[in-house]
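Exercise 7 asks you to align residues with tokens for two separate proteins.
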Amino acid sequence: MLIAANINPDEMVNLFNLMKKEDHQIKMPHYVSTHPETDKRISRLKIIIARAKADGHVYQALSSDNDWEQIKKKVFHPKAQSDNFS
């Protein structure tokens, strides 16, 4: 979703790494979890990011004054948004 909206997803890897630090406190079998294991999420995300970069995908820079509403429009309505985020 972030790639489709031209928002750089690299920071998602950092977010999942932060989550991984907390994983040691909660151990449950993968078959009862509602989400993939954090390591698997990180690996999959890195593959998706690498493919996008290999395909030449370039992300638009977000200006420092973007608010949450602008970001939501960009993520959830990427085709309809007409704002210039560079």
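Second protein for Exercise 7:
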Amino acid sequence: MVFETNPTYKNLFGSIERVWDRGGQLRADFLRIKAGSVLRADHGFLVINALDALVEPGVWPALNAPCATVSSKSPAATRTRRCSARSG
């Protein structure tokens, strides 16, 4: 179970850090990939405050995108993955 108290896009979905090399080029490699809360909660639960996710730009649509994909597939796929937001 992963609790995310600050559900920004970067905190939820991760980021790729970039650094300047000696030649003045901006570089990134696989060692600088930082996982977000969604990946850390894989096959588990991610607990966030829904209101915080709604007011943060781009977070709510990105969280709902997999739910739209699953619901457009077969009924068997819908049963295997639950997408819901609960308040309370």
